[in-house]
## 1
Amino acid sequence: MFDRLVENLGRASVAGDAAQIRNPETQLAAAMLLYAVLPADNVIRPEESFELRLTLQRLLRVGDVQAQHLISRAVSAYSREPSLLACATILKHRFTLGFRNSLFEAARRIAAADGQIHVNEADVLSRITSLLGLNAMPHRLSA
C-alpha cells in the first residue's frame, strides 16, 4: 500500500488540509506515524493507546469506530514496514506546516500520556520532527 502512496507523491496537493484529512491514504499515513510512538519504549500502555484514539478522532475528524479501524490498519502497516519515511513524506507534501506541527504535538502528547517520555520515544519524536520538515525544537519533547 505504501508503494502506491509514494507513487502518488508525484501529484502536488493544491487542496487545503481539510480535503486531505478526508483522504484515506493520508489518514492511514497520519495514523501510522502517530502509532509509531507507542511501541518505541517497548511497552504499549493503555493511556497511550487511548490518547492515540482520541487524537485521531480530533485531528482527522473521525468517529470512534473509524479511529479504531485506522489504528488496526496502522498497526498492520507498521508491522509490515516500520519505516516512517513513506508516511512522513506523504504528510509533508500534502499538508501545511501548521497541520504537520499539530501532528508532531499530537505525537508528543501520545508519548507523554503515561507521564514520561522515554529516551526511545524522544528519538522517534526527533525523527518525526525531521521527516515532517519541522524545525528541531528539543524543548518541545519534555512531558
Note: The two ends are 34 Å apart (CA to CA).
## 2
Amino acid sequence: MAVGRRFVSQVLRLTGAPVAAGDTVMWRAPFGCRVTQIRAYRTGGAANAVNAKIGSTNVLAANLTAGSSTFATGSTNQALASGVGSGKMAAGDILSATVVSGDGTLVIVQADIEIDKDVTEL
C-alpha cells in the first residue's frame, strides 16, 4: 500500500578540539529518497565549512558555513535528477556528513530526507 510522501531527519553530532576535517557516515538509505536540506550548527572556534556526500558526490552545490549557535541551511535542487546538488539517493546509498574545514569544537549536521511517495515499508 502506497502512502503520501514522508520526511525523516538524520542528525550527527561531532566533537573535537577542534572537530577534524573529513567524512563521517550518517545513514544508509533503505529505499529511494532525496536529501532536501542540510543544516549545520557549530559552537567554539571561528568557522566550519560543512557539506554532505552521497557516496563521493556532494549533496550541496556549495559548502555551508556552520552557524555559531544557530543553524545554517542549504537546500538541494529538486529539479536535478542526479549528481552534485540533487540529493537523490538510491536504496543502499550511504550519506556522510563532511567537515571541510574549520575549528569548531562541536558541529551538528542534520539532513532532511524526503521518502518517495511510492515506497512501501514492510
Note: The domain at 6-115 is CATH 2.60.120.220 (Jelly Rolls).
## 3
Amino acid sequence: MKGSTFTVIIIIVAIIAIIGMVGFIFLKNSINSQLPSSPANTAVQISPVVPVKDFAPNLPMSQKATILIQTSDSSDIKYIVPADQVSTYVKSLPAGYHVVSQTP
C-alpha cells in the first residue's frame, strides 16, 4: 500500500510537470506569433524627431511657410520661414542640402 501511494504521487507530479511544459511552450509560441514579423537582417526603422527652426517667430502661422530640408548627412531639418522669403532661404542652402517638401 505504501509503495503504490508513492507511485501514484510520482505519476501525478510527472503529469503536472508535463502539462506545465506543454502550456509554457504553447504560451511562448502564441506570444511570438502576435509580434510583428521582420526578417532577421533588417533593422527596425524608428522615426526620429525632426528639429524645427522657426525664422519668423513673431509672425502668425498663416504668413509662414514650412520647408523640410535634408542635410548632407541625410538628416532632416524643418525650417519655418516667412511665406514671401521661401526662395531666399532655398537659394542660400549650403552645398549638399536639398528641399524635400515645402508647404505654403
Note: The chain has a mean pLDDT of 82.
